[in-house]
Amino acid sequence: MTTAVTTPATGGNGARSAVAASARKLVKAYGSGETRVVALDHVDVEIARGAFTAIMGPSGSGKSTLMHCLAGLDSVTEGEVRVGGQEITRLKEKKLTRLRRDRIGFIFQAFNLLPTLDALENITLPMDIAGRKPDKAWLENVIATVNLEGRLKHRPSELSGGQQQRVAVARALAARPEIIFADEPTGNLDSRSGAEMLRFLRRSVDELGQTIVMVTHDPVAAAYSDRVLYLADGRIVDEMDSPTAEAVLDRMLRLAEDVPGADGTHGSAS
């Protein structure tokens, strides 16, 4: 078996960065015996700090499974996952929950905003639950970055879909996590709102020094990243630095021809 080993990427400034998250010999399997399905097959990967990394692949390639394992949202069958320098695969649930709360941010297709709270209250909610006061200067910087200054007292029902997603992004950024995982963050947005969202994510890396890992199927979205990882049948089969939408699309088409299963006909985990 040949395993793709990825090296630390460079961030937007071109300098080699420290590692924000990593996996070694990562296996995620479901079932046993003849019904066993391998979603991740001995994956080695390093995510550079201060960079924007996109993960792509067809349905069933394991891209969302990889993100969930790196984020501590899913257990692993074999191997090791680290966030920063801390190994997380053997943490007890209580400590893992605290790590996710304090060191990791999440952005998903569903905005997951509380309808009874206004935008600012939704942004600070995780810190309120943890009993922590937000850094005022940082919070103001985040709110300015996502352009929400005039909408902070509005409840979700009074905001557009794009504005709600910006609130979700601000919530992920507000606690200054070490890394943010975004699973198809533009999936519920129209093309204009989606492009706006991707620009905000790009700015959060360039101007706020954030680390972002984004799962996407969209070559245009991937083009906002510093680096693209390509998965097929649970393995990292290729990567690209400084991507363009055209180059990403071309690479996806070639992978569909060259890699067994890259057309989405094999595997069961996304």
UniProtKB/TrEMBL annotation:
State the UniProt keywords alphabetically.
Answer: ATP-binding, Nucleotide-binding, Transport
| Residues of the ABC transporter domain | 21-258
Keyword Nucleotide-binding belongs to the record: yes
Q: Which InterPro entries match?
A: AAA+_ATPase (IPR003593), ABC_transporter-like_ATP-bd (IPR003439), ABC_transporter-like_CS (IPR017871), ABC_transpr_LolD-like (IPR015854), MacB-like_ATP-bd (IPR017911), P-loop_NTPase (IPR027417)
Query: Gene3D superfamilies, alphabetically?
Result: P-loop containing nucleotide triphosphate hydrolases
Q: Which CDD domains match?
A: ABC_MJ0796_LolCDE_FtsE
UniProt-listed PROSITE patterns: ABC_TRANSPORTER_1, ABC_TRANSPORTER_2
Cite a single Pfam family from the UniProt record: ABC_tran
One term of GO molecular function: ATP binding
Q: Which named protein is this?
A: ABC transporter ATP-binding protein
Q: Which organism is it from?
A: Streptomyces daqingensis
